[in-house]
Backbone:
């Protein structure tokens, strides 16, 4: 955000605090403005799930209900004061979020959407049935006054509680989203495999996103009961969950302004057009469809486009690269001795079968430190499968992988990355919507040690870590030769540069071994020469490189040793010159010169 | 004992309706890898159109079935062209889920405007006098539902296996590129699968309405339970949705009888979440390997 | 006659084919050979309409195919036997073959379909024994025969074959190439894409060597079989010497 935009936002935020002084009409302040604020808190949380994490939740009304009922029961039955009751509401929301997040670990798309719908309906049923606690369909009435000492937050004064809380919630979401947490969410959304291979724990961040989102929904629920001083089960219907989604999508995901605008629309519109209340669902449904297909960024996206019109093409300032000439590559002390050639990674009898098909069969490989080891073979010989096995994407059905004293055959991609193996992908798997710099920052995820608290409070440590990571990311981009593109979206890069960016992202993980899966595929001959030079530079710095490639001139020029696969089995291994003359290799690639039958027929 | 048998019978009848709706999800999921989150609302529109056809236009129950089938089929075309096809082009799961949800609430609102918000009795063509077999009383409509649902599923399976068009649908479900190479118009087959699934949903509405009541709100819960059934059984398995539907129908009746009628709607969802955690591909589903 | 002119194909920012031209005369078997990643499959997928070219044209007997949908191109007489065979695994051998006849099923008498089926079973007796079996349960070699048989059912004017030897054991590879030479003898026009260069050159009339999306060499198959540059295209410059 630019400085002027920041000042404008601050001024607007302050100005809206005075709403209750401008109009004393209790309907507008109490019923409309307060409701908008509470919805915004929830929708900002929903944005974490939908906008940042890319999952659809049609069950947020259930989380909202969890917070509302927890707070309502505590203030009416056990006479807790507001604050602890609200905290309990948040905690209950978070707990329910955890329950909702567990399926999200394994499911995506329609499966997850259906399970969130089911979750919402279960909550509604339980609320209806657990009469001793919830008063069933009657609902909980007579919620006590909300007071802090002598000041009470009743009627229009409620606004002075919910509005600042809304601002805090928005601030929290904004800080989270712009930190390494937000990058982790987005990386998992765009390609969960690439994110895990870049050292991000899917488990941790998928659950976190649901818990954090649910905590905000719980807070919203705990506040909501103070609008009508009543809470009943009919409020928390499937329709309400859909309404929140409409607010989010129509306002525009991943935008604080969008969250606010969307909630204003869903709360105010039915009021303004209350003569047409009977057509409300139709209008909202139409709005949602319209937004999906004609207004992809929602209202906020539209405004952004309108206001940035003319400013288009503003050049992202070419980032200054540190004059020290530091490459940003961190080599572990034990790899710095150039003469090293002891074994870094060793597989023994590595095997994987898909159904009846054995894709890799009893493979023994030894990759030595500081060498370039190539793996070649005809189509379908099991090369990419081997990379997937070594990087933890596939789990072998037999055999072992030892890497620097650890066994990795059962490790997740995340654990493999942590152990010191980084990889690139045959079909470039970048985070296309993120910038070039952010892609490398995802690879630097492991350099962040300040937890959630540091991020939300933006402590000096969080600021320092972010700054250091950005500086190093630029160095790495400079090392692969694309620092001038740091501010560009990754998907807009030419293909050759995308391949280089993937290598930079892999290097960011401080690997001891880097797996390059066809780094030259689709490149021009000039670009291939650049990749070759890069591989030589990496080797010179003490990194081991495992190279899968079809461009034989590249393979032959940079490799120390070549392993040849055919039908998942190793058929040859040796120095490039020997491999080129090996009759078995030639037969595997080119076939034998005509079998007798073929000639005779 | 007779009480228990009666429970089973009601459970099977309602279970067959779940199975029928879930069968529709199964058809569209196999060709397009999407499901229609408005399917329950299509059932409701089928029931209400059927009601109008039977009572206002005096076309009888057969007329109601035909009307619901036509309305369902038309809705399938609308849904596929407005919500599914654009989303398949952008390959965004979020957009087709939300687009079908949007069409669902629009459909519900339309129904409320045309037929009002009250529950209406839908007379059964076979009357409401229960039949008694060895002490077990059964509503004739329950037997009709079981028979008709089984017949529809059998016919669709027969179509899939025996007719060349059905074979083409199966081919598209298995491999779109290879199907196109056989000269099969893949987008047309996908549209057709939505027409078929939606027509089945419409007919299900006319089948179930005499047992419940016809109203603009009747579809949402049925549709949602049918998702649960489809996922529990395995979205790709025809046998799975049948077993899943019966399982759900029975467990609901048993819950209502032995736990509490208020919790009648929960076993399906609990079952769903359990299955998703234990075997996400469903009881009869096959595991797929994601290629990198 | 199938003619490909200056075909350029892109996947997003990646240009996979940089202008390929070749022609397949009627009744001839033309081979396109090259290492994997060279663009062979992309070329076939573009000819049959599964991919749209960025520029260039494909014509069949003078009629342009570019811009048509895959199912239309299939109906115009281009039968594509795809990489990895891609039979319909949950359908029987019979059903797979019937689907092969789908492009003309509506206007072909039953007897004619039976005759076509009979022809396929005569060429591939193994399939006749397994008519009712699900295609997914066949061995790799049998699936390849089924894929070829399925293509023949469409009464094609030209058959595109994408690496029919892939993933097959050497004995089965012999069998596949024996079948190709039989089909050639029957006068069927074929465009064969193959990695196993010497095998393909053994059956082809003419051949093209494709490397990194460009045609590097072309000529009569017998000449190319002796050309050391073919080996260089696969295993690097040094291998050609």
Residues:
């Amino acid at each position: 955000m630019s400085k002027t935009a920041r000042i404008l936002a601050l001024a607007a935020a302050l100005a809206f605090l005075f709403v209750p002084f401008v109009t004393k009409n209790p309907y507008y302040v109490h019923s409309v403005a307060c409701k908008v604020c509470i919805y915004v808190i929830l929708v900002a949380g929903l944005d974490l799930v939908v906008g940042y994490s890319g999952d659809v939740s049609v069950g947020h009304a259930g989380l909202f209900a969890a917070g509302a009922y927890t707070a309502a029961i505590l203030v009416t039955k056990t006479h807790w004061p507001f604050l602890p009751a609200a905290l309990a509401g948040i905690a209950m929301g978070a707990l329910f979020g955890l329950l909702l997040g567990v399926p999200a670990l394994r499911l995506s798309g329609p499966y997850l959407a259906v399970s969130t719908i089911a979750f919402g309906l279960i909550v509604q049923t339980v609320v209806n049935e657990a009469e001793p606690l919830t008063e069933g369909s009657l609902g909980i009435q007579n919620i006590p006054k909300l007071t802090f000492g002598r000041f009470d937050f009743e009627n229009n004064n409620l606004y002075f509680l919910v509005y600042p809380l809304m601002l805090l919630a928005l601030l929290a979401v904004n800080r989270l989203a712009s930190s390494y947490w937000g990058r982790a969410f987005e990386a998992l959304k765009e390609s969960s495999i690439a994110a895990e291979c870049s050292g991000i724990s899917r488990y941790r961040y998928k659950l976190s996103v649901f818990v954090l989102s649910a905590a905000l929904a719980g807070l919203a629920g705990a506040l909501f009961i103070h609008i009508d001083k009543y809470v009943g089960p009919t409020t928390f219907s499937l329709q309400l969950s859909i309404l929140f989604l409409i607010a989010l999508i129509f306002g525009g995901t991943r935008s604080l302004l969008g969250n606010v605008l969307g909630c204003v629309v869903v709360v105010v519109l039915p009021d303004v057009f209350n003569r047409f209340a009977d057509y409300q669902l139709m209008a909202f449904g139409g709005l949602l469809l319209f937004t999906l297909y004609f207004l992809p960024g929602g209202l906020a996206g539209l405004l952004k486009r309108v206001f940035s019109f003319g400013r288009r093409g503003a050049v992202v300032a070419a980032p200054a690269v540190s004059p020290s000439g530091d490459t940003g590559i961190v080599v572990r002390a034990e790899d710095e001795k150039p003469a090293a050639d002891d074994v870094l990674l060793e597989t023994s009898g590595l095997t994987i079968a898909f159904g009846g098909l054995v894709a890799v069969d009893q493979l023994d490989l030894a990759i030595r430190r500081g060498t370039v080891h190539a793996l070649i073979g005809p189509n379908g010989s099991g090369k990419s499968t081997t990379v997937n096995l070594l990087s933890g994407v596939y789990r072998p059905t037999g055999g072992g992988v030892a890497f620097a004293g650890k066994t990795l055959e059962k490790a997740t991609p995340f654990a493999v990355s942590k152990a010191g193996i980084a990889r690139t992908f045959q079909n470039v798997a970048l985070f296309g919507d993120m910038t070039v710099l952010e892609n490398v920052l995802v690879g630097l995820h492991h350099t962040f040690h300040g937890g959630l608290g540091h991020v939300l409070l933006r402590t000096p440590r969080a600021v320092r870590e972010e700054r250091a990571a950005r500086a190093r990311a630029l160095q790495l981009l400079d090392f692969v030769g694309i620092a001038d593109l740091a501010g560009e979206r990754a998907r807009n890069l030419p293909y050759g540069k995308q391949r280089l960016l993937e290598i930079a992202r892999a290097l960011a993980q401080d690997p001891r071994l880097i797996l390059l899966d066809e780094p030259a595929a689709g490149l021009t001959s000039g670009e291939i020469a650049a990749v070759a030079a890069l591989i030589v530079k990496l080797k010179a710095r003490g990194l081991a490189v495992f190279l899968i490639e079809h461009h034989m001139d590249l393979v032959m020029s940079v490799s120390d040793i070549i392993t040849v696969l055919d039908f998942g089995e190793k058929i040859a291994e040796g120095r490039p010159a020997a491999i080129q003359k090996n009759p078995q290799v030639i037969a595997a690639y080119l076939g034998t010169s005509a079998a007798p039958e073929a000639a005779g027929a | 004992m007779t009480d228990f048998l009666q429970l089973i019978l009601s459970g099977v009848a309602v279970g067959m309706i779940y199975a029928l709706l879930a069968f529709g999800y199964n058809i569209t999921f196999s060709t397009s890898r999407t499901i229609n989150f408005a399917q329950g609302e299509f059932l409701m529109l089928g029931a209400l159109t059927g009601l109008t056809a039977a009572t206002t236009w005096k076309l009888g129950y057969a007329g109601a079935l035909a009307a619901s089938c036509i309305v369902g089929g038309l809705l399938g075309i609308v849904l596929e062209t407005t919500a599914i096809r654009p989303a398949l082009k952008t390959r965004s799961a979020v957009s087709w889920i939300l687009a079908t949800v949007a069409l669902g609430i629009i459909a519900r609102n339309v129904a409320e405007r045309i037929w009002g918000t009250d529950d209406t009795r839908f007379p059964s063509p076979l009357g409401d006098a229960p039949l008694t077999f060895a002490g077990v009383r059964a509503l004739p409509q329950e037997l009709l539902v079981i028979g008709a649902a089984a017949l529809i599923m059998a016919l669709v399976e027969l179509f899939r296996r025996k007719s060349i068009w059905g074979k083409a649908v199966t081919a598209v479900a298995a491999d779109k590129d290879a199907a196109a190479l056989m000269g099969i118009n893949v987008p047309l087959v996908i549209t057709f699968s939505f027409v078929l699934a939606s027509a089945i949903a419409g007919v299900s509405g006319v089948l179930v309405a005499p047992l419940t009541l016809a109203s603009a709100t009747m579809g949402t819960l049925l549709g949602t339970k049918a998702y649960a059934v489809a996922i529990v059984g395995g979205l790709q398995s025809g046998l799975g949705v049948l077993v899943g539907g019966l399982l759900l129908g029975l467990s609901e009746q048993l819950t209502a009888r032995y736990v509490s009628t208020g919790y009648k709607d929960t076993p399906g969802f609990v079952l769903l979440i359990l299955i998703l955690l234990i075997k996400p591909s469903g009881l009869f589903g096959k595991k797929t390997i994601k290629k990198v | 006659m199938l003619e490909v002119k200056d075909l350029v194909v892109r996947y997003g920012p990646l240009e996979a084919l940089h202008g390929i031209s070749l022609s397949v005369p009627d009744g001839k078997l033309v081979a396109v050979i090259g290492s994997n990643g060279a663009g062979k499959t992309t070329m076939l997928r573009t000819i049959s309409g599964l991919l749209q070219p960025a520029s260039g044209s494909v014509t069949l007997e003078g009629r342009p195919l570019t811009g048509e949908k895959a199912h239309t191109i299939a109906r115009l007489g281009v039968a594509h036997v795809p990489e990895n065979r891609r039979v319909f695994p949950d359908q029987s051998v019979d059903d797979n073959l019937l689907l092969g006849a789908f492009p003309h099923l509506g206007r072909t008498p039953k007897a004619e379909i039976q005759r076509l089926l009979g022809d396929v079973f005569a060429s591939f007796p193994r399939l006749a024994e397994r008519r009712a079996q699900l295609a997914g349960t066949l061995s790799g070699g049998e699936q390849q025969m089924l894929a070829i048989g399925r293509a023949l059912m469409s009464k094609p004017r030209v058959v595109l074959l994408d690496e029919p030897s892939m993933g097959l054991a050497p004995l089965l590879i012999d069998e596949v190439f024996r079948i190709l030479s039989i089909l050639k003898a029957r006068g069927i026009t074929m465009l064969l894409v193959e990695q196993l260069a010497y095998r393909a050159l053994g059956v082809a009339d003419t051949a093209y060597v494709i490397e990194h999306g460009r045609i590097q060499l072309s000529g009569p198959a017998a000449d190319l079989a002796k050309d050391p540059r073919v080996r260089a295209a696969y295993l690097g410059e040094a291998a050609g010497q």
Remarks:
- The beta strands of chain B are 131-133, 136-138.
- DSSP finds eleven helices and two strands in chain B.
- Residues 78 and 271 of chain B are 32 Å apart (CA to CA).
- Chain B has a mean pLDDT of 91.
